[in-house]
What does this fold into?
Amino acid sequence: MAAAGTGVGQNLSNDTGKGGVKGKYREYLLPETQLKAGVPFMTIILITLYLAVIFFDFIPLTKKGDKKTNWVYSVFLAASFLVLILSIFDIVIPGPSGAIKQLVGFFTSSS
It folds into this structure.
């Protein structure tokens, strides 16, 4: 028999853990996080502003019929919305500086 507290040979079926998940697989879940106090409010403001931009700027632009401009506008609008939402939830997006440094180092290194 294993020592107490090691988890080896113990029945974890009644053990509730992260997110109410029972059993030995709960350790594979992401750690529990707490939202900051202003996150829901900032999210509502962001969605409201983007809806206003879509309603007052994007919809009239689509009625002009320029498909290339519509695609570029919608891609940049979606990308900026995604980046801002991730920023609100404190999710770090890696920047391109590491890849640029490696690329410059590749072309400037003499071997």
Notes: Confidence is low (pLDDT under 50) at residues 7-15. Residues 37-92 form one domain.
